[in-house]
């Protein structure tokens, strides 16, 4: 079966074929992401107005939207240009006014003849003791009352669009709803008590009360599940396609790993041992590995990565570790070098800085296989870089790289296994959405020896005291980070803030003690400033968030974060993780500007309460929503129109299990349910996955 099924043609036709939609309205709809009838179908009401008829406006606590029958008593035309036209009416218990601005008197007299009965519906408010309905939404005769639904759905709008237009257009889509085959398995439908797709759509667009708008109703849960299922089927097809590509089984001898573990001052945690076992099993299998290693700040991911790379070297292959920045790549070199030496291998570092003979020499060592483990930046996947036998690509801080770059690096070998590492704990729901195609290993224990960090919340009015405290800490030989506020609008503003703070601290603490790093600095200056801080020449490093990832300076035991209320929880947690790595007791000062809003305060309080990155990530998701938690770099998140990632994690998990099971049973989607799933994929604009199936 190829191409979109005929049953869906109507939903993917021109939106101008719908009632009341001409070229102008079509342009307005495009602003809210509606270009086809299908998009309108998946734009559900976000609220509703009760239009049931009351005896009097006094029956409802005002202000409110009320529908009543009235007798028209008198007209009072506008007395001056900017004055309103008023019509006094009487309902079952009281008289009130209908108020119109810029209305034509002759039209109003035809609509509202004195002495006649009409039904009016609109928002009623009390001004100067008189109830007023300004510009009623509806003025109807008794026969016309039928057109008014008891509960009127409210759709999201943009300037120029009216509820009437959207209501009318959505009704004309609902009239052409096709009868589609059921893609959800019968036992799930029965267990969850879900309606069929078309019934769920009809109910979602015709709520009878506010209760029907909740995400927890059977019809809303069913429609959300459809979105999750199509997403997870897509990920599972990509995953199955990767699994079908044969891997190169690699087993280690254990000799080098044993040497490293013996030289370690303490035993690996249970989570580290478990993760290494999972990775070793993947490497030994004939299918390619595609695994995410997710660990909190300081949970020891680097050791796991090293042991994984040693398995490959023991088995006669090569491994590469790619970091997003040169600073981070060098840091990996420094921390891994001593352990690699114990194992009897030397590490090679390749960055964009390597030029001429030095670069040629490194490339020759990689191409001949003399270098077993290579560390580097994206310089690793330039076209002239060749490996003798690359079997494992470890990618650090995945969200800084696109999938494309992940694939470029894995293309440097015959059947490269991929291990992706991230230090950003990701809530389970987002992990399922973003990395659903990968197997996941989680490091949820801290290695022994990591001291807790004392977190303190301080008002910026006490900056002088903070600087005094810093001065005495420096005199005792300690080091500190000072992180400047996050400025969404521009890196230039952020840089200016950092430069001003740098000048102020240089005056207060002595210029020789203070360094500066920000995103706009040339790489050589950035590296020099970092090197001076690492060597202890400077005592305070003023920085923007460029230090968020990976910098490891055990002697730094104080972290000051200015305007901490502007940062997301995950970012604050990452920054705090830069201290508490040495023998000293460490402190993190969250400095805020007053007044502090409730949400901002609860964010800072969570930081004070816990150092558990996974709990912090869940709270961050609850407070800020998925888009913000992952930040712009990770906007690879699917956009769901109905499903809600934050509150429906269990549905997403259910969809993942279902998708993986289905594709093991029916990898080509040829069964009856498989064919129905193909219809779902076309309905959800996932034609790409069907093409992948066909290519295999």
Strand order in the largest sheet: 12-13-11-14-15-10-16
Radius of gyration: 32 Å
Number of helices: 24
Low-confidence stretches: 626-636
What general outline do the C-alpha atoms trace? Answer: globular
Structural commentary:
This protein is globular. It is α/β, with parallel strands linked by helices. Strand 3 (64-76) and strand 4 form a beta hairpin. Helix 7 (218-244) packs across helix 22 and helix 9 (270-284) packs parallel to helix 10.
Please tag this protein with its features:
single chain, 696 residues, alpha/beta, seven-stranded parallel beta sheet, six-stranded parallel beta sheet, 24 helices
Outline of this structure?
It is built from 24 helices and 22 strands. The strands form four sheets. A seven-stranded parallel β-sheet has the order 12-13-11-14-15-10-16, sandwiched between helices.
Walk me through the topology.
Layout: H1 23-31, H2 37-41, E1 47-50, E2 53-54, E3 64-76, E4 85-90, E5 95-100, H3 105-111, E6 117-127, E7 130-134, E8 138-140, E9 151-154, H4 163-175, H5 186-192, H6 197-205, H7 218-244, H8 255-263, H9 270-284, E10 290-295, H10 301-314, E11 318-322, H11 326-343, E12 347-350, H12 356-368, E13 373-376, E14 390-396, H13 403-410, E15 417-422, H14 428-435, E16 439-443, E17 453-459, H15 463-475, E18 479-483, H16 491-509, E19 514-517, H17 523-534, E20 540-543, E21 556-561, H18 569-576, E22 586-592, H19 598-609, H20 613-624, H21 626-630, H22 649-665, H23 672-683, H24 687-695
Parallel strand pairs: 2-3, 5-7, 10-15, 10-16, 11-13, 11-14, 12-13, 14-15, 17-22, 18-20, 18-21, 19-20, 21-22
Antiparallel strand pairs: 1-9, 3-4, 3-6, 4-5, 6-7, 6-8
Helix pairs in contact: 6-7, 7-22, 7-24, 8-10, 8-11, 9-10, 10-11, 14-22, 19-20
């Amino acid at each position: 079966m190829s191409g979109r099924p005929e049953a869906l043609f109507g939903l993917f036709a021109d939106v101008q074929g719908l009632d009341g939609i001409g070229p102008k309205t079509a342009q307005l709809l495009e602003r809210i992401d509606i270009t086809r009838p299908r998009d309108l179908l998946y734009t559900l009401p976000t609220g509703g107005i009760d239009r049931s008829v009351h005896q009097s406006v006094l029956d409802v606590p005002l202000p409110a939207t009320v529908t009543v029958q009235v007798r028209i008593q008198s007209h009072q035309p506008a007395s001056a240009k900017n004055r309103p036209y008023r019509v006094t009416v009487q309902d079952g218990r009281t008289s009130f006014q209908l108020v119109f601005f810029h209305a034509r008197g002759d039209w109003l007299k035809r609509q509202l003849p004195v002495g006649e009965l009409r039904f009016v519906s609109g928002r009623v408010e009390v001004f100067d003791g008189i109830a007023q309905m300004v510009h009623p939404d509806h003025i109807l005769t008794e026969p016309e009352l039928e057109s008014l639904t008891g509960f009127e759905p409210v759709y999201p709008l943009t300037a120029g669009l009216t509820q009437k237009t959207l209501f009318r257009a959505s009704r004309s889509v609902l009239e052409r709803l096709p009868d589609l085959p059921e893609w959800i398995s019968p036992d799930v439908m029965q267990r969850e008590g879900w309606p069929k797709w078309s019934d769920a759509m009809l109910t979602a667009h015709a709520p009878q009360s506010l209760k029907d708008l909740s995400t927890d109703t059977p019809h809303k849960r069913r429609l959300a599940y459809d979105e999750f299922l199509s997403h997870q089927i897509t990920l599972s097809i990509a995953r199955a396609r990767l699994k079908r590509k044969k891997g190169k089984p690699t087993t280690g001898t254990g000799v080098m790993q044993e040497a490293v573990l013996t030289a370690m001052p303490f035993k690996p945690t249970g989570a580290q041992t478990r993760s290494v076992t999972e990775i070793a099993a993947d490497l030994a299998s004939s299918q390619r590995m595609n695994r995410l290693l997710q660990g909190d700040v300081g949970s020891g991911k680097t050791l796991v990565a090293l042991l994984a790379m040693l398995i490959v070297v023991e088995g006669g292959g090569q491994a590469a570790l790619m970091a997003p920045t040169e600073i981070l790549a060098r840091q990996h070199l420094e921390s891994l070098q001593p352990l690699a030496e114990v194992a009897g291998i030397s590490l090679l570092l390749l960055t964009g800085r390597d030029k001429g003979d030095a670069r040629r020499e490194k490339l020759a060592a990689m191409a001949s296989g003399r270098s077993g483990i290579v560390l580097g930046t994206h310089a690793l996947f330039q076209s002239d870089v060749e490996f003798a036998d690359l079997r494992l690509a470890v990618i650090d801080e995945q969200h800084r790289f696109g999938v494309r770059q992940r694939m470029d690096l894995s293309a440097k070998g015959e059947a490269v296994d991929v291990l992706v590492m991230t230090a950003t704990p990701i809530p389970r729901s987002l992990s399922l959405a973003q990395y659903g195609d990968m197997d996941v290993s989680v490091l949820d224990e801290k290695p022994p020896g990591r001291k807790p960090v004392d977190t303190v919340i301080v008002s910026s009015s006490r900056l002088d005291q903070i600087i005094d405290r810093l001065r005495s800490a420096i005199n005792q030989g300690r080091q500190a980070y000072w992180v400047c506020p996050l400025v969404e609008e521009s890196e230039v503003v952020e840089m200016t803030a950092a430069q001003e703070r740098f000048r102020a601290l240089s005056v207060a603490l002595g210029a020789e003690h203070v360094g500066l790093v920000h995103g706009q600095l040339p790489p050589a200056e950035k590296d020099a400033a970092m090197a001076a801080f690492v060597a202890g020449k400077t005592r305070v490093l003023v920085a923007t968030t460029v230090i968020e990832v990976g910098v490891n300076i055990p002697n730094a035991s104080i972290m000051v974060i200015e305007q901490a209320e502007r940062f997301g929880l995950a970012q604050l947690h990452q920054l705090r993780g830069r201290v508490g790595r040495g023998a000293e007791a460490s402190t993190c000062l969250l400095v805020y500007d007053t007044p502090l809003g409730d949400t901002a305060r609860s964010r800072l309080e969570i930081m004070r309460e816990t150092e558990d990155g996974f709990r912090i990530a869940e709270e961050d998701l609850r407070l800020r929503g998925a888009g913000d938690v992952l930040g712009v770099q990770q906007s690879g998140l699917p956009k769901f129109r109905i499903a809600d990632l934050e509150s429906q994690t269990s549905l997403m998990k259910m969809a993942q299990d279902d998708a993986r099971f289905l594709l093991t049973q029916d990898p080509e989607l040829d069964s009856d349910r498989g064919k129905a799933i193909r219809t779902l994929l076309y309905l959800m604009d996932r034609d790409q996955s069907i093409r992948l199936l066909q290519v295999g």
